[in-house]
Amino acid sequence: MFDSMNSRMFSSILLVTTILAATLSGFDPASAEDYSIRQITLNMKQDNSNKTLQDKLTKQIQESRLLYSSGNRELDSKDYDNAIASYQKAITLEPTFPPIHYNIGMAHLAIGNKKEASQHLRTFLTLRPNAFNAKEVHDLIKLLSN
Length: 146
What we know:
This protein is mainly alpha-helical. The protein has 6 helices and no strands. The radius of gyration is 26 Å and the shape is elongated.
């Protein structure tokens, strides 16, 4: 809201400045005003575009979290292949959400995919280096590397 208010205030100041500059330099104020109105319209479209992008990202994160929850249920019921599939879809939507990488790493570990487990656990530690279980995860990665 603050950014939108600043944008409108800036656009108004820009309009007044443009009209003043046009008048002082001999340009037709009407054409300068038309230009400023076009600029304000473009700024408003940009604001709407940013809101649309924010809405899209919010929806994408919500979908990722639903897939993450689904993966958790599948992991709890030892349905590892479906858990991995759910987590993988969630990663495509939200690749920087650390718990997805931890859990997909655990699912891969459960079915013996050491390389994939290690890769996702490393990503988890990269995204959340100060996790409460960072030492245990680091030790597990070392163990998987041997």
